[in-house]
Specification:
Layout (H helix, E strand, L loop, with lengths): L11 E5 L28 H14 L3 E5 L9 H9 L6 E6 L8 H7 L3 E5 L5 H8 L4 H13 L3 E8 L8 H10 L3 E6 L17 H11 L4 E2 L8 E5 L6 E5 L12 E4 L4 E3 L8 E2 H6 L4 H12 L6 H6 L17
Parallel strand pairs: 1-2, 1-10, 2-3, 3-4, 4-5, 5-6, 6-9
Antiparallel strand pairs: 7-8, 8-9, 10-11, 11-12
Helix pairs in contact: 1-9
The structure holds S-adenosylmethionine and iron/sulfur cluster.
Length: 329
């Protein structure tokens, strides 16, 4: 089993396959003037397949495909097909904004994609447009319906934003009444590409919980899966569950089992670090699989104990301001 220097098992890779996106969520990306990475800097599918294979050899058994928006990268479904055939990889999950995903859902089901996280911050079409700067609410809802009708385990990710979707907490939580979905409310983080102002955390995990309890006084705590980033609850009589992710308060670092790869091949051993080494550059310089594996192990042998230490150790300075689209969430 792969372990870090704090004896935490690490079995989960989050792979951001592109920094490009068809939305412009204001908490993630500036509206204009985005400098995407040059294509040559992005890992090719062949490179990603080799790197994932090396990581699976070390003990990674669970993969999340994220981005940017994964499904706007050309031939994404072929890549997912390759991943689904990798021996040793037991679980593949995907995070998507759902804009172009609905027609792909039957193929995702066929490939055995275990679960899909769908980002949805509001059930109000006008507010959706204001938050994402695109008028694509209906398409996202089509994806939601397609996921449910194909029986793919679905979680909704909602970033809570002061003065924006405050009134959406209730209707989003109510989706769990008739649907077997997990709706997770996430603390906003400062990863917005440096455009949006981030002065304080307005919607903390405590406030989210208090608000949920106000709406649903019988809210029941349920056990959290191992290494879960969310605290999970059930509203009595509802089919689904609600969760709270303290992404800014970082209460979950003690059991963190995940590493990240950015689209240009930067390995991150914590969401809050600014990359520990670039595995694609090593590969392009001719490193063998053993050398790649050695570098991963070395990075895990020097992993920050939590997101606060990782943030303090950033080499390229503070504050955190890169876009989440280059990290993958
Ligand atoms: N484009 C896909 C999507 O939106 O689902 C995948 C990538 S997106 C970066 C992954 C997750 O990060 C989304 O659920 C999004 O809501 C979340 N995210 C982006 N910026 C964030 C921020 N500043 N704070 C908290 N969560 C953020
Ligand atoms: Fe795109 Fe996802 Fe970022 Fe929104 S959160 S801009 S959908 S990458």
């Amino acid at each position: 089993m792969l372990k870090d220097n704090h004896n935490r098992p690490v079995n989960y890779l989050r792979l951001a396959v592109t920094d490009r996106c068809n939305l412009r969520c204001f908490y993630c990306m500036p509206e204009e003037g985005i400098e995407y990475m040059p294509k040559a800097e992005l890992m090719s599918y062949e490179e990603m397949i080799r790197i994932v294979r090396v990581m699976v050899g070390l003990g990674i058994s669970k993969l999340r495909i994220t981005g940017g928006e994964p499904f706007i990268r050309r031939d994404m479904m072929d890549f997912l097909g390759e991943m689904s055939r990798l021996d040793g990889l037991h679980e593949i999950n995907v995070t998507t904004n759902g804009v172009v995903t609905a027609p792909l859902v039957p193929a995702l089901k066929k490939l055995g994609i275990r679960s899909v996280n769908l980002s949805l911050d509001t059930l109000d079409r006008k507010l959706f447009k204001e938050i994402t700067r695109r008028d694509d609410f209906e398409k996202v809802m089509k994806t939601f319906e397609a996921l449910l009708s194909h029986g793919i385990s679905t979680k909704i990710n909602t970033v809570m934003m002061e003065g924006k979707n405050d009134n959406d907490l209730l209707p989003l939580a109510m989706l769990t009444k008739d649907h077997p979905v997990g709706v997770r409310f996430i603390e906003e983080m400062p990863f917005n590409g440096g455009d949006a102002h981030y002065d304080q955390l307005w919607w903390s995990h405590r406030r989210i919980l208090e608000t949920l309890k106000n709406y649903f006084p019988d809210l029941e705590k349920i056990p959290d899966p191992p290494s879960s980033t969310s605290y999970n609850y059930k509203i009595p009589g509802h089919q689904g569950t609600v969760g709270i992710i303290a992404a800014y308060s970082r209460t979950f670092c003690g059991t963190c089992n995940r590493i990240r790869l950015t689209p240009q091949g930067l390995m991150k051993s914590c969401l809050y670090d600014d990359g520990v080494f670039n595995i694609k550059n090593l590969l392009r310089a001719g490193a063998s699989d053993e050398q790649l594996a050695h570098s991963v192990l070395e990075a895990l042998g020097n992993r920050a104990k939590d997101g606060f230490e990782a943030e303090a150790r950033r080499r390229f300075g503070l504050p955190v301001s890169e876009s989440m689209a280059t990290i993958g969430g």
